[in-house]
Amino acid sequence: MKAEQCAKLLLKQDRILLVTHNNPDGDTAASASALCSALRRQGKTAFLYPNPQLGARLRAYAEQFFAPADFTPAYTVTVDVATEKMFARGFEGKVDLAIDHHPTNSHYAKAECIDDRRAACGEIVLQIIKAMGGVTKEEADMLYIALSTDCGCFQYANTDAHAFRSAAELLELGADNADINQVFFRQVSPARLKLEGMIYSGMRFYHDGKIAVNFITQQMLRETGVTEEELDDVAGLVGRARGHRVGLTIRENPDGTSKISARCGPDFDVSALCAVFGGGGHKMAAGCNIHEKPERACELLLQVIEELWA
Question: Is the domain of 251 the same as that of 147?
Answer without folding.
Answer: no
